[in-house]
Amino acid sequence: MTRSPSSQDLLPADLAMGTVLLKVGDMKTMSAYYQQALGLDIVAEADGGLYLGRGRTPLVQLVPAPGLRTAGGGEAGLFHTALLFQDQASLAATVASAAQFEPQAFVGSADHLVSEAFYFTDPEGNGIELYHDRPRTHWQWEDGHVAMDSLALSPQQYLNEHLTEAVLAGQRQQHAAVGHVHLQVGEVRLAREFYVETLGFEQTALLGDQALFVSAGGYHHHLAMNVWNSRGAGPRKDTLGLGEVLIRLPGADDVGALAQRLAHRGVAVANTGAELVFPDPWNNRIRVIVDTEPAA
After folding, report:
1. What does DSSP assign to residue 3?
2. Residue 295 lies in a domain
3. Domain with 280 in it: what CATH number?
4. pTM exceeds 0.90 for this model
5. What is the pLDDT of residues 252-276, one digit of tens each?
6. Coarse DSSP helix, strand, coil percentages of the chain, rounded to the nearest 5 percent
């Protein structure tokens, strides 16, 4: 029987997701997509790679890895990186620029009750979600689980209602953040054992043996794991695609407490004192650091 973590084992409520690292084969094409389609700017450059984001906040790190193969569709790894926008107008502006830059990259949209979301695929097959949260007062909870759905959401109607020339012109000045990261894994039960029982996330939704949603502090989800394409997948090899998921905790004590839980569970961790780096059961690399970013 699985257990839920005690209150002492939970990750802090003010946890935040950080930069998602992608290993890429064609830096020119990928950089152009994230800058022109998604309206991100170069925040920093390092070792031939780029940090792309809004303002001074990096959201995606592109690292050149031209010798790696493309991951197969049934392998564990990234399902999508979800970029969160603070209002419907700023979401509409980025949906419009992404659709105009590469219409074929649009793969769907949905009203999830807690949020409104639009889905794209970058030039190397990495999934992207662009979304806006409805106010938390509108979310419905029962027995610790939040009500989510996938209802029809018309992209054209959304743009007609929320897009303006002014907000489109000021797109790059509008705040965005990594709201959550959705992973492909081999088994939901094992994902729960790792992300809930070991790391200390709280389960917020469970779709049988298909998908798991987890968060800290009552958010609908900071991470999700599904087996829709990857049931039975084993540990990842080194491929193009997901390189690292970054999680930011508010204090060094929080990082230390997590390090103790990981050690108790026998998880191999590189611990510098300031950060932890470790794999999940499918070799998705997780890095945890003390948050030095100012609150948005």
Report:
1. -
2. no
3. 3.10.180.10
4. yes
5. 999 999 999 999 999 999 998 889 9
6. 25, 35, 40
